[in-house]
């Protein structure tokens, strides 16, 4: 799927869409820049359903066309998710984490709701890399359908209303000068009045697993469901990551499944109430 979008154009468009959904990200970004920091992205993440034409294998060609290399797969049994990590063609560009929901593991009613959403997708939309920030490719679901999905999968419910876009960008703590530990950075984020995802602890991972991560709780905005009901829903969040060198002195490049499992919960409708 060759296309002529440069990496810079891709991430600039992705960032614009993301910050429109996630005003807290601009606030954090700008506050750090005001402190003299240079922001480098560690990674960005996308979510999708494992259903054509938007399953992981259908979206991956856009990453490959940008020069990305698949690194390794991850599995999240309890959350019914699988994912791949990708390495960028240049070190100054973000890694990518792309996950998909294993729809066949949901109940028949939940599967039917997802099938109805996915059936509305115009397959022509998938041909352009812009699909990666296309948002919903289907009509808004009803509140009842959203709740049915949420009972089985917060991820499914979130995806049904937010659609395809970066669900977070991640600041590389390694590249910060003043806020050079997760705790210092989290204190700064909290000083802006923003909340941290505490599921599994504020800081997930450790130097021993070569990766420490933390994230905000997703921003919230009113959403009009099909039928007219308006409810406040979680949108997207910001993540912070600090990588450590391995035994060969090479900075760890992968993700850590046990930590990722908790970071997913940054978009839970009722944070802290997850399984
Ligand atoms: C992805 C959660 C996992 C990480 O860095 O491990 C993750 C998501 O919320 O879709 O971002
Ligand atoms: Ni992440």
TrEMBL record:
InterPro entries: HGLS (IPR009770). GO terms for molecular function: dioxygenase activity. Pfam families: HGLS (PF07063). Its EC number is 1.13.11.93. Its cofactor is Fe(2+). The keyword Hydrolase does not apply. CDD domains: VOC_like (cd16350). It is an enzyme of class 1 (oxidoreductase). Belongs to the 2-oxoadipate dioxygenase/decarboxylase family. This is 2-oxoadipate dioxygenase/decarboxylase. It comes from Halomonas daqiaonensis.
């Amino acid at each position: 799927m060759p296309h002529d979008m440069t990496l810079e154009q891709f991430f600039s468009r992705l960032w614009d869409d993301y910050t429109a959904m996630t005003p807290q990200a601009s606030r954090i970004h700008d506050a750090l820049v005001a402190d003299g920091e240079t922001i480098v992205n560690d990674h960005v993440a996308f979510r999708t359903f494992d259903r054509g034409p938007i399953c992981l294998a259908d979206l991956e060609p856009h990453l490959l066309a940008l020069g990305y290399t698949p690194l390794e797969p991850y599995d999240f049994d309890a959350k019914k998710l699988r994912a791949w990590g990708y390495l960028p063609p240049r070190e100054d560009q973000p890694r990518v984490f792309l996950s998909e929901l294993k729809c066949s593991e949901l109940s028949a009613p939940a599967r039917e709701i997802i099938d109805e959403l996915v059936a509305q997708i115009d397959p022509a939309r998938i041909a352009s890399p812009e699909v990666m920030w296309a948002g919903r490719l289907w009509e808004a679901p009803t509140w009842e359908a959203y709740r049915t999905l949420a009972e089985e999968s917060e991820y499914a419910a979130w995806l049904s209303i937010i659609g395809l876009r970066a669900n977070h960008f991640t600041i590389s703590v390694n590249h910060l000068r003043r806020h050079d530990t997760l705790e210092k950075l989290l204190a700064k984020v909290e000083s802006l009045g923003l909340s941290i995802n505490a599921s599994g602890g504020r800081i997930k991972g450790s130097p021993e697993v070569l990766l420490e991560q933390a994230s905000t709780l997703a921003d919230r905005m009113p959403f009009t469901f099909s039928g007219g009901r308006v409810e406040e829903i979680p949108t997207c969040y910001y993540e912070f990551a600090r990588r450590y060198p391995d035994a060969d002195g090479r900075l760890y490049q992968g993700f850590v499944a046990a930590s990722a499992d908790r970071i997913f919960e940054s978009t839970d409708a009722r944070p802290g109430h997850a399984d």
